[in-house]
Amino acid sequence: MRATVKDVARLAGVSPKTVSNVMNGIVPVSGPTRFRVEQAMAELDYVPNLSARGLRNGRSGVIALALPDLGTPYSAEIAHSVVEVAHQQGWSVQIEETGSDPTREYELMSRARSNLIDGLILNPVVLDQSAVKVGVSLPPVVLLGEVSQKLADRVWVDSIAAARDMTLALGRTGRQRIAVLGAAGGRGSAAAALRTRGYQDALGELGIPWDDSLVIPCEKWSPDSAARALTAYLDANPVPDALFCFTDSMAIGALSVLWKRGIRVPEDIALAGFDDIADAKFAVPSLTTVSFDKRRVASEALRLLTERMQDREGPQRVVAIDYEIVERESTVNGP
Amino acid sequence: MRATVKDVARLAGVSPKTVSNVMNGIVPVSGPTRFRVEQAMAELDYVPNLSARGLRNGRSGVIALALPDLGTPYSAEIAHSVVEVAHQQGWSVQIEETGSDPTREYELMSRARSNLIDGLILNPVVLDQSAVKVGVSLPPVVLLGEVSQKLADRVWVDSIAAARDMTLALGRTGRQRIAVLGAAGGRGSAAAALRTRGYQDALGELGIPWDDSLVIPCEKWSPDSAARALTAYLDANPVPDALFCFTDSMAIGALSVLWKRGIRVPEDIALAGFDDIADAKFAVPSLTTVSFDKRRVASEALRLLTERMQDREGPQRVVAIDYEIVERESTVNGP
DNA sequence: GGCCCTCATTACATCGATGTAACGTGTTGC
DNA sequence: GCAACACGTTACATCGATGTAATGAGGGCC
Fold it and tell me: How many CA atoms lie within 13 A of A235 on its CB side?
């Protein structure tokens, strides 16, 4: 059987509470006593029972991270950063996938309320409706990304500005017919809307008239879905001068399609993505993209979360993460 | 304050234990009573406290998944599958990253012993030494991948056979000088050794003499590291006929280098990977690779884990997952 | 020397859910 | 009509750690 405080106390010749005091370090314990207790803990190979501790003081040391799909490089990189940063600060991370399924988001909420979780970092997809529950008796929540409603603390990259800057960068290379891939398909993703808006703003500045036929919707933001959408598009339309994909994953799918069709990047078409996932640098050709520090996203989210644990009533806060247009081979200036 | 069984019991006019009985469904509860209790639970928006439940019955409903690096597509896809399958069976998943740091693996063990975790699925890297702890007072463990020691239940893909088959497939296209990328660099990865062995076996069958200069080591199994290793290699050696990368991630790094140098794939060199990550299909050109069902890996791991929870003493089991050589553009037969 | 004060340590209750064993009810059998 | 029997329900103890309030010992001060 596993050793408990009681066992340690008996072996050290003290009371259970003293053992607890040694572990927590709040209540002072005399040197010799502390030493005996530590010896006993080592000897019995004592490990505290986190369920008991969690029950007693209402906190478990676990936070949940909810992402649409861990299989996506973007989600995976965010998860990686969050796990790493959280770990450094002594938190464990429970991963939940919401998929495109709203019921999962609901389950998630109830699980979050079950006290095994001290906080929740949520990267919403559809959510706007389910997040209404925020604040009922949920632990603190921090949202990642663009969300229309102001429901909780939030960390995001300014999608409008970034999409605008990227479009301007493409325009500056002399490309006129700039298409975007990833516009809201069926369900309206907030990010899709914002990035489309930034694109639109930039067109205005560039003096390029809006052209509906250059806005390519895409059901999901995956390479697969992007490849299908682009294939269908190219079957029915001329090749644009540039293609701005709303995520790198889509850009990678697009690259594959373009290559199969013998459309050269960047000679025939400039290609840009968004997110700067690890593989963007190794795409063929390497991918121009909107880059931002994912570690920073993670650490800011965690900071907001822990601060919110202290003060549940303070004003809501929004942290914007800097971004940068990284120009790589896929948009090199034409000759 | 959050509602507890007591509150529900009071409202329903029964004892707390009856509420518990309704939830657990083991002890029979009469229809009307059950109904009153369920009403009360709904009205109070009752959510059970999992810490308390975990303390009482020694299980938390959480399993841990420990991977080297979530940022890697391979790890991410495995994590995705595990989370999905686990969720279907009512488990939550806590993610731990071991990185290349053995101390993390140790921390992980002690965390796993802290009772917030009912089981552990571990994809080891260096571990052979740390896993010695398995069995002390750890929860059930299932290992993923190749491990030399027989410490616990295990799910794996037969790396030797797969590497052999892939090498044979490359040989069958008429390529003679077949190189491998990813051989054990500094620390000895078990998988690297096994895949190298399969490669060696195949060379024998093909009647191709072993050539040390075709075995390219690589420090980490990342695109980055692969790109560096291959660049250095090509600076000092002629271009091989074929290159078998021990992971798709490395192959993607290799593709990028080959493209930059104007070495055509598959015309000048055939390229193959291992793992069949999502992006392999969208690489330019699409990547020939060793494919296996990651969902199956996850479900088998979970099956072994849950069965091990029932019977901690049974014999150790090893489940091999079928693999398949998927031939794509990167190894198309020469003219 | 006696009193008080400090500071480490202790006994006990508590967090919330649930297994155990005892306890009513209402039913069946003779 | 009374004993025996189900079956649902209850009181209580328990899981392990920790906050609270009380206890004890030791030291300093007058």
Answer: 6
Phi and psi dihedrals of A147, rounded to 5?
A: -140, 140
- The answer to whether strand C lies under 7 Å from the CB of residue A55 is yes
pLDDT score, position A126: 62
Q: What is the largest CA-CA distance in chain A?
A: 84
Q: Count of alpha carbons within 13 Å of B164, Cβ hemisphere only?
A: 13
A131: its two tokens: 């997040």
The low-confidence residues of chain B, meaning pLDDT below 70, are 100, 126-137, 148-149, 185-188, 334-335
Which of B152, B219, B251, B60 shows the shortest CA–CA distance to A282? Answer: B251
Is-contact B253 B222, C-beta < 8 A?
A: yes
pTM of the model: 0.92
At residue B83, what are phi and psi to the nearest 5 degrees?
Answer: -60, -40
Determine the residue of chain B that is closest to A94 in CA distance. Answer: B94
Q: Is A34 exposed, middle or buried (0-12, 13-18, 19+ CB in 10 A)?
A: middle
A103-128: burial string, b at 16+ Cβ within 10 Å, e else:
ebbeebbebbbbbbbbbbbbbbbbbe
CA-CA-CA-CA dihedral for B190, B195, B200, B202, to nearest 10: 150
Q: Is B224 exposed, middle or buried (0-12, 13-18, 19+ CB in 10 A)?
A: middle
Query: In Å, what is the separation between the CA of A138 and the C1' of D17?
Result: 24
Q: At what angle do helices B248-260 and B223-236 cross, to 10 degrees?
A: 50
How sure is the predictor about A53, in pLDDT bands with cuts at 50, 70 and 90? Answer: very high
Q: How distant is the Cα of B37 from the closest Cα of chain A, in angstroms?
A: 19
- CA-nearest residue to A109 within chain B is B47
Residues A11, A43: contact at Cβ < 8 Å?
Answer: yes
Q: CA-to-C1' distance for A3 and C28, Å?
A: 51
What tokens appear for A317 in the block? 């806060």
**What is the pLDDT averaged over residues A290-312?**
95
CA A277 to chain centre: 12
Whether residue B70 contacts residue A73, with contact meaning beta carbons closer than 8 Å, is answered with no
Q: What is the DSSP string of A70-133?
A: TTSHHHHHHHHHHHHHHHHTT-EEEEEE-TT-HHHHHHHHHHHTTTS-SEEEE--SS-TTGGGG
CA atoms within 13 A on the CB side of B115: 25
Find, among B141, B72, B109, B156, the residue nearest to B302 by Cα.
Answer: B141
- Contact list in A for residue B70 (CB cut-off 8 A) is 70, 76-77, 79-80, 83
- Helix, coil or strand: residue A14: coil
CA torsion angle A226 A229 A230 A236 (round to 10): 180
Residues B32 and B16: their CA atoms lie apart, in Å, by: 16
Q: Give per-residue pLDDT as tens, A127-175.
A: 555 554 545 567 898 999 887 667 789 999 999 999 999 999 999 989 9
Q: Which amino acid is at B131?
A: A
